[in-house]
Amino acid sequence: MQIGGNAAEAISSGREGVEALIDWFRANWTQLPIGLAVAAGIVLVMLGLRLGGAWLSSRDPECRHWRGVFGRVLQKTSIFFMIIAALDIVATYAAVPGKIERLLGILFTVGFALQGAIWARELILGAISRKAGEDPSETAIGNALAVIRVLVSVALFALAIIVILDNIGVNVTALVAGLGIGGIAIGLAAQGIFADLFAALSILFDKPFKRGDVIKFDQTTGTIERIGLKTTRLRSINGEQVVMANTKLLEREIHNFAGGRMRRSQLPFGLIYQTPPDELEKVVSLAKAAVESRKGCTFVRCSILGFGASSIDFELIFDSRTTDANKLASDRTAVALAILRSFAEHGLEFAYPTQTTFTAAPDGTMILPYAAPAPAPAR
């Protein structure tokens, strides 16, 4: 009898709800078309915004500017959200029955939470693409974008589901605690992978180098071939491929040879101590002429470094307007050959490691360490 009583109460309540809904329609049937027209107008405005977003996105498909990012966000607005948002706005200003108002409120919460997750995902991915500022195939973004999309989508939609459940009256405390513990466990288990992933994103955002750049770290010099999620691959000057973890690579001091428009070269040399000071004064002008004889090279300075064990040490510094290693080697060779020819013409001798021994005769007089030149034969 108790079950039958509950069923009868439910049927009676349902009949009352239907009767209230019919009464509301009878009382507001003249204003109902106006409300539907207002809702349709709101939907049309949102459709216009979505079409505007599609137009902005088509003009900037790679999201190099913020207008492309916002266009991408507006383009992802769903029809379901437009309709539910319009009906909820109209219902706010209309005396609709309580059940319909609660139903529209639940649907709007669901639609707004899911739509907000989509907007946030597109905004984050668009901001990353804008920060990359290059062809995705040429940077880590091309490899990382799929993983980033999955991670961002999982996080945002999980948050949206929690918001939906909380708004419909479900206790989400245990769910939030479980997700937090699961996230910590996954983070600890894959911390190495995540570290290299965030290092790849650091390379993407900070741009210490890009594909095709020649870099040097420690004793390795090579050309960047690929920037992946976990590793960066280089082609060394000896031809072999060098694979380096992104995290370890960023911990080192990196020299990017593609970062400038010219390269500076140092060319040390030494002259013998027997060179007269007047001849030493010619060294700077001769070195400058040798550098300027090579197209693309600029003389910086040539100065005495000090007095070595076997030579008077000089240092020649010049700039080459190139970043190509082969061109730079050709410039150094050409300048060195020009110096050799010029010094030979002016009688300037390069020093090499030597030792001179001085001996004394029994009477104490010094004996020359080299033989005296033989007299010329009489004619």
Can you characterise this structure?
Helix 4 (79-92) packs across helix 5 (98-132). This protein has three domains: 14-135 and 145-167, no CATH class; 198-259, SH3 type barrels (Roll); 263-345, Alpha-Beta Plaits. The chain is elongated, with a radius of gyration of 40 Å. It has 379 residues and is an alpha+beta fold. Helix content is 56%, strand content 16%. The protein has twelve helices and ten strands. It has helices at 2-28, 32-59, 66-75, 79-92, 98-132, 141-167, 173-189, 191-206, 246-250, 277-280, 283-292, 325-345; strands at 214-217, 220-227, 231-236, 241-245, 254-256, 263-271, 297-307, 312-320, 359-360, 366-367.
Topology of this structure?
Layout: H1 2-28, H2 32-59, H3 66-75, H4 79-92, H5 98-132, H6 141-167, H7 173-189, H8 191-206, E1 214-217, E2 220-227, E3 231-236, E4 241-245, H9 246-250, E5 254-256, E6 263-271, H10 277-280, H11 283-292, E7 297-307, E8 312-320, H12 325-345, E9 359-360, E10 366-367
Antiparallel strand pairs: 1-2, 1-5, 2-3, 3-4, 6-8, 7-8, 9-10
Helix pairs in contact: 2-3, 2-4, 3-5, 4-5, 5-6, 11-12
Keywords:
379 residues, alpha+beta, 5-stranded antiparallel β-sheet, 3-stranded antiparallel β-sheet, Alpha-Beta Plaits, elongated, SH3 type barrels
Quick description:
The protein contains twelve helices and ten strands. By secondary structure, the protein is α+β, with helices and mostly antiparallel strands.
